Amino acid sequence: MKIVGIAGSSVGTKTRTAVNYTLDKAREQYPDAEITLVDLSQYDMVFSDGRNYWEYEGDTKYVTETIMAADALIIGTPVFQASIPATLKNIFDLLPVNAFRDKVVSILVTAGTPKHYLMVEQQLKPILAYMKAQIVPTYVFIEEKDFHRKEIVNDDVLFRLERLVEDTVLHVHAVKVMQEEKNAKYDF
User: Fold this and answer.
1) Which residues fall within 8 angstroms of residue 184, CB to CB, at 6 or more apart?
2) Can you tell me the distance from the alpha carbon of 168 to that of 188, in angstroms, rounded to the nearest whole number?
3) What is residue 92's predicted lDDT score, i.e. its pLDDT?
4) What are the residue ranges of helices labelled H in the chain?
5) Can you give the pLDDT at residue 186?
6) CA–CA gap between residue 125 and residue 123 (Å, rounded)
7) Distance CA 56, CA 63 (A)
8) Model-level pTM greater than 0.85?
9) Alpha carbon 27 to its chain's center
10) Of 3, 99, 144, 156, whose CB is crowded by the most CB atoms within 10 A?
11) Pairing mode, if any, of strands 2-7 and 34-39?
């Protein structure tokens, strides 16, 4: 199983902290899984110009191909101006419409205020659904007050991140069973 964690911003540390914690828990709980971090602040990404993702070069090609090869994505995003950051939106624009078909996608969000929780429901989930993702229904919303000195200090948030990992893997297994049942209907 390939799990890719995406830290979906080119600035700040809170989202990267949360994604790192989540991926560390995934490594502990599922040592056989291939787990990769894609921190968008570490890559020189070009803006989407309509080409197929495999036609890009350099970091853009690496990031898009890594995402396309994943069985599951754990997308971490901050809330900027009541929306997702442009760096994350660009990733979605670089990929094909059906990029997330048969992929499980779970979400964690960092925000300065609880008032931005609806961004996930009104913006991010519709994009993921349009791209055919199998979305883990519950997501983890982390506020400014849950961090101290680049660490998550709220035990409930830590528990929910661990549960997010479990739910993600359970969904991957469920999708695999559904695919096998679907494929068994055909004689090839």
Assistant:
1) none
2) 30
3) 98
4) 14-29, 58-68, 86-94, 118-119, 125-130, 155-184
5) 84
6) 6
7) 10
8) yes
9) 16
10) 3
11) parallel
